[in-house]
Structure formats: structure tokens, C-alpha cells
Amino acid sequence: MDVVFRILSDFRFRLINRSRLWKGQQSGTGIVLVLIVIGSIGFHIFSPWWWTPIASNWSVIDDMISVTFWITGFVFAAVILFMAYCVFGFRPGKRRLAAYQSENNKLELWLTGLTSLSAAALLAPGLMVWFKFVTVPEGTDEVEVFAQQWSWSYRLPEKDGKLGTADNRLISYDNPLGITSGDPNKQDDVVIKADDLHLAVGRQVKMLLRSVDVLHDYCVSEFRANLDMVSGMSPYFWLEPTRIGTFDILCADLCGTGHGALRGMVMIDPEDDYQTWLFE
């Protein structure tokens, strides 16, 4: 009997120690979760990495990113803090009993409603911005951006303000941009076979995007405006440069082994300097 008593006493002692250890681990887990939330918010507020100063009219895109951060950040913090509360508040104890509940219609209704409102708060403003992004104002200049592995080319209208039509199926050695030969609007088009482009400050421009081969993405971070360039399609967006300067052009899609070399510069000039460059 003494042996059995000692075995039972030892077993009870181990259970008590494990229970205390488990409580300590759960308390530590709750503290770590709270610190994750505090650290994430602090990093977002004091982070040295942020977007570059804007140089176009699309400051509303920055506003949308901020709204997205606030909404998703609030949900992230709420979920993590709720987890910390559950871990710490419902740790094992003498007077705590688990209760099984198969469903809770009221809770499910609240969760569905809050999730729907959060999704709408994210999607609705974005759709309104997208509508403005692709609705080109009347009288906007046109610039065609032509991408291929691994260089940029451009085509601008001159006196008539209209670009001649083009088709990738017409691309050849003598016609590298696939310009339609019978189109009268092509007569005064300015073709730039270089990676650099000039635009006039304060002058709205529609960017027509074409790719001859793989997926590309004409990206100038300071413009906050870019789209994928798909061969056979003609996506577009418009912008208005608002700041004089020189900015990097990058391809934002992995387009092959020379992806890193697909670079260029866009120079935002005063109107007089832009006209001088265009007609030189």
C-alpha cells in the first residue's frame, strides 16, 4: 500500500507542476500576442520605409492605401488581442468547466455583418478611384509606351494630336512598332527608340500601353499609376505630372533574365522645355 500511495502522490505532484507550467506558458503567450500588436502599430507609425514623394495627381491612391492600412490594421489588432484575452482569461483553473455550443446564430450574424462592412469599406472607395483612373478627360495628350525584352520605346503625336493605329501583327524589321501604313494620322507621329521619355508638367497625358512579347508593367513610383502590359491588349491610364524632376522607370513584372535591365528615366519639364525637346 505504501508503494501505491507513493506512486499516486508522485503522479499528483507531477500533474500540479504541469498545470502551473501550462498556466505560465499561456500567460507568456498572451503577453507575446499583445507585444506583437504594439510592435506592429509602432513599426507602421515610425517606419523609415514609406512611399516616395508623389509627382502626379493621384494622391487619392495614397489615401486609399492609408485607408486599407487602417481597416486591415484594426482587424488584425482586434483578432490578436481577442486571442490574447482568450489565452489568458480562459486558462485552466479549478472552477472552470468547458461548455460545448453547437451554434450561435446571433454571433454568426454579427460576424457576417462586420465582415461584409469591412469588405465594402475596402472595395467601394477603390472602385470609385478605378473609375477615375480609366476615365480620361477630354483634350488629354496621348503617349504610347511600347515594351519588349528588354527596352522601352515611345510614340507621341505631333501637330494633329492623334496617334496612328498600330497592331502587333504588323511588327517587322522595317516596322518595329507595328504602325498601320495606311493611317493618315501616323504621318507626323514622333517615334522615340530610347528608354527615356519627356513629359510636360501640369499637362494631362493618356498612357497607352503595348507589349510585343511577355508581360511587362510600366511603373514610375512617383506617379502612383501603372498597369500590366499584355501582348495583344491595349490597357491605358491617365495622369497629370505635378512636379518637375527626373524619375526612374521600372518594369514591375518579372519579364525574363534581363528584367533588371528594363529601366529608363522620365523627365518632367516646363512646357517650353518640353516643346523644345518634342520638335528638336
Write the layout of secondary structure elements.
Layout: H1 2-46, H2 59-89, H3 105-134, E1 141-148, E2 151-156, E3 190-192, E4 197-200, E5 205-211, E6 216-219, E7 228-229, E8 236-239, E9 245-251, E10 263-269, H4 271-279
Parallel strand pairs: 1-5, 4-10
Antiparallel strand pairs: 1-2, 2-3, 5-8, 6-7, 6-9, 9-10
Helix pairs in contact: 1-2, 2-3
Question: What is shown here, in short?
Answer:
By secondary structure, the chain is α+β, with helices and mostly antiparallel strands. The protein has four helices and ten strands.
Compute the number of strand runs: 10
- How are the strands of the largest sheet arranged? 3-2-1-5-8
The overall pLDDT average reads 81
The proportion of residues in beta strands is 15-25%
What is the count of helical runs? 4
> What value does the Rg take, in angstroms?
30 Å
What structural class is derived from the secondary structure elements? alpha+beta
Structural commentary:
The chain has 280 residues and is α+β, with helices and mostly antiparallel strands. Helices cover 41% and strands 19% of the residues. It has helices at residues 2-46, 59-89, 105-134, 271-279; strands at 141-148, 151-156, 190-192, 197-200, 205-211, 216-219, 228-229, 236-239, 245-251, 263-269. The protein has a five-stranded mixed beta sheet, with no helix packed on it. Strands 4-10-9-6-7 form a five-stranded mixed beta sheet. β1 (141-148) and β2 (151-156) form a beta hairpin. The protein is elongated and about 90 Å long. The relative contact order is 0.12. Residues 3-18 have low confidence and may be disordered.
